[in-house]
Amino acid sequence: MYKELRRYLREVFRRLAEQKESRIEEGHLMPDHVHMMIAIPPKYAVLQVIGYIKGKSAIHLARVYGERKRNFVGQHFWARGFFVSTVGREEVIREYIRRQEEEDNRLDQMGLW
């Protein structure tokens, strides 16, 4: 299901960002977490855009993939936090996101010993 969901979520996140006039510059979906670099215009607060994307995507996933076609009140899809950086660190963040799958696989292998 992860591979199907991964392709599907990419488009969901892109559309939600566009609704707040934002753009996903870089992203990587892992089985248990997501990394995204999002360009957000100054007229929006970062918390407003991130909260919108997290909230709407969780509701959407509950409706599409949940057993019942309703909002799952009291259940959590997303963790509470997120990381924010302003301009000037784009390339470092892009590289970090691009290497996440490789790094997670390396750490999983280390955990076997």
Write the layout of secondary structure elements.
Layout: H1 2-19, E1 23-29, E2 34-39, H2 46-65, H3 90-98, H4 100-111
Antiparallel strand pairs: 1-2
Helix pairs in contact: 1-2
Task: Give the CATH topology.
Answer: Alpha-Beta Plaits
Strand proportion, as a percent range, falls in 5-15%
Order of helices and strands: HEEHHH
Trace the largest sheet across and list its strands.
Answer: 1-2
Cα distance, first to last residue?
Answer: 28 Å
Q: Main sheet?
A: 2 strands, antiparallel
SS content category: mainly alpha
What's the CATH class, please? Alpha Beta
Individual helix count: 4
- Mean pLDDT across every amino acid position: 81
Q: Kindly state the number of beta strands.
A: 2
Explain this structure to me?
The protein has a single domain (2-111), classed as Alpha-Beta Plaits, CATH 3.30.70.1290. The chain contains 4 helices and 2 strands, in the order αββααα. It has helices at 2-19, 46-65, 90-98, 100-111; strands at residues 23-29, 34-39. The radius of gyration is 15 Å and the shape is globular.
Features:
113 residues, mainly alpha, Alpha-Beta Plaits, two-stranded antiparallel sheet, 4 helices, 2 strands, 12% strand, globular
